[in-house]
Amino acid sequence: MTGSRQVKDYYAILGVSPTATLAEIRVAYRERARAFHPDLNSSPEAEARFLEINEAYEILADATKRKAYDYFVSVAQREASESGEASAMPHVVTAQERGEETPGETSTVGVPPSKSPQERGRRPAPPPWAVLLIVLGICIVAAVAVGAFLSLRQPHPSGGAEAVTVSKVTTFTSPLVAPESQIVLEDDGVPLRVASPSQLEVAGLVYPVAAVIPEEGHWPVPAQDENLALWIHGTVVNYVIGLPYNPGTLAALSGLSSQDRLTLTLDSGTKLVFGLPEVVRIDPSDVSPMTQDRPGMTLAVLGGEESTRLLVRARYLPEAGSKPGETTIAGVAVRVLGSEIVEDVRPLEVDSWYVVVDYQVTNTTSSVLQPLAFDLALEDSDGYRYILNETATALGTYGKLEVALSPGETARGSAGYVIPATARFPLIWVFRPDPSLPDDMRVVLDLTSPAPAEPLPEVMLLDAFWDPARAVVVLSGQVTNNGDSLVGIERDQVKLTSPGQEYALVAATPLLPWRVQPATVQQFELQFEVPTQPEAVLRLTIAGFEFEIE
């Protein structure tokens, strides 16, 4: 083989050194992503460069992926250098080879000079220290194998019981600090900052809160500080917090009623309020309460010798929490001015609503701010995210914000979305001045799910004839439901009459009663017993709709 493997130089793509820190990589990524964003750069190559920059950031911002990438490049180059085979030598594609100007430091990964045919034919002997290491490794493996064999032959304790080794799962003398490298939430590969709880208030007791990372499938070991609560890092939908086992905690949790409120303060200053606490006892090994399937908070008592674990489940009450005013993020001060569900205009999508958020931004930076680069999204309580909708945005008070903001300038805009009628409230508005930023602002909107519209049935009679062979009048038509709720038609709502007489219903297809779902059409056929050909005008009544048949 005469070709070479091509490996993208991700360091050169971001314009950083292979020894760059995570902070330097993030800064470089933001600059490059902004420079080649397709919405801000009209160059035909911008989109491809933007995708390449995101690919490089995804690898280098992840410690595990970056380590694997560095190892792959270094090992492949070392093997090619030692074997002398040019075909095995990976070729690193740099920004210069693509004809790009790469500002700043670039990767120093290169290709060593090719060797002569004589040099390629010789394989150098391994150094003596390498042989010594191999021999030492073989000795260690043999020693471990012998020790394992001897341990199996040890006699059991008296009485026939087998010896059991007990090991503690986790222990610490001070609260753990969650590592910055552990990503809890991310958007398109960009880590999002998670506000951590700092204080918990329950039944008049106040607990400082520290983050812990327990072993998977286990509850954390209690802290030595009897007044410290432990938040399981990463539980941000259902906040799971362990409380110390002591008489005060047991009395406070056992005495909770549905009227009590539990307050969790985040390190951002936001206060989350939870209510309707449910006190239960579970098996100490049951970790199912840690699941993140509903918004709320779970308090579990850690420690003690009881056969069951005391647990409290509480529901999130968004209307009782603190609502932030103006928040500054990356030099942009933003405030939500109002929000609404537009009920007089409906989207083309069935069973959906327009939601509009009006906001104000102030550019506190020293450079021009481009609102077109804003990342504006809407989330429901199930975590589903909705993107901007142009039609919905136009329904807002201020419309789409498109004009660039000079330093110190303030402007107002609207952001509109389409949500399904099944979306769970409350809704959360998410703002980021730049999609590449790890931080965002999240505001719980003061909105409630609109009530479904009243049923709007429409009945049409399409055909009618008298069948003398069976002595029946056959009627066919359809029922259309234009509302948002179910339409029900009972048997006693379907009648055929003439002056002074009512005729018996012989058959109905489909069988009555009828249940017509929203935005659907139900075809029907009715047969009424009429002994002789009717001479008078017949009147058909279906759910209040009347038709005359001559």
Chain oligomer state: single chain
- Total beta strands: 30
Rg computed from alpha carbons, rounded to a whole number of angstroms:
35 Å
Integer tally of domains: 4
Strand content: 25-35%
CATH topology group of the largest domain: Sortase, Chain: A
CATH class of the largest domain: Mainly Beta
Structural class comes to alpha+beta
Percent helix, as a range, is: 10-25%
pLDDT < 50 runs, ≥5 residues: 85-92, 99-121, 154-177
Output the strand order for the largest sheet.
5-6-7-8-11-12-10-9
Mean pLDDT: 79
What's this, in brief?
It is built from 8 helices and 30 strands.
Topology:
Elements: E1 6-8, H1 10-14, H2 22-35, H3 46-60, H4 63-83, E2 91-93, H5 117-121, H6 128-152, E3 185-187, E4 190-192, E5 197-202, E6 205-212, E7 229-232, E8 238-244, H7 247-254, E9 262-266, E10 271-282, E11 296-302, E12 309-316, E13 327-329, E14 332-342, E15 352-363, E16 375-379, E17 385-386, H8 390-394, E18 410-420, E19 428-432, E20 441-444, E21 457-467, E22 472-481, E23 487-489, E24 494-498, E25 501-503, E26 505-509, E27 514-516, E28 520-529, E29 538-542, E30 545-549
Parallel strand pairs: 1-2, 6-7, 8-11
Antiparallel strand pairs: 3-4, 5-6, 5-9, 7-8, 9-10, 10-12, 11-12, 13-14, 14-15, 15-18, 16-17, 16-19, 19-20, 21-22, 22-28, 23-27, 24-25, 24-29, 26-28, 29-30
Descriptive overview:
- The chain has an 8-stranded mixed β-barrel with strand order 5-6-7-8-11-12-10-9. A 4-stranded antiparallel sheet has the order 13-14-15-18. It has a 4-stranded antiparallel sheet with strand order 17-16-19-20, with no helix packed on it.
- A hairpin with a 2-residue loop joins strand 29 and strand 30.
- By secondary structure, it is an alpha+beta fold.
- The protein folds into 4 domains: 115 residues, DnaJ domain (Helix Hairpins), CATH 1.10.287; 136 residues, Beta Barrel (Sortase, Chain: A), CATH 2.40.260; 118 residues, Immunoglobulin-like, CATH 2.60.40.1240; 93 residues, Jelly Rolls, CATH 2.60.120.
- The N and C termini lie far apart (91 Å).
- 18% of the residues lie in helices and 33% in strands.
